[in-house]
Amino acid sequence: QVQLVESGGGLVQAGDSLRLSCATSGRTSGAYVMAWFRQAPGKERDFVAGVNSWGALFYGDSVKGRFTISRDNAKNTVYLQMNSLKPEDTAVYYCAKRDSNVLSTRGADYFHWGQGTQVTGSS
Fold first, then answer.
1. Which residues contact 87 (CB under 8 A, 6 or more apart)?
2. What is the pLDDT of residues 14-39, one digit of tens each?
């Protein structure tokens, strides 16, 4: 009933920028948190950034100051602007929706997930 589709991933060099998009469809009415997570090979899925319906923000420590999350509610789309990319940012990036408007960094609190998009930062 809820679909999330990420796009915008790719291969970039260290220091470059990339903008990810997450388009949502289905039952998306009401106030809720949207977030980005990422998972590197052999690692846990880690919180990257989150935003609730009125613009309150969370950022993971590893991306604070480099990444920016935003949302366009009219378009049902969430974005992740990634600047100053590093090889350590290489991961599959996932868009997620929570059935609540309270920000959380826990993946278990999000019940709807996109398929993921690969971001690779080369040196």
1. 14, 121, 122, 123
2. 999 999 999 999 877 789 999 999 99
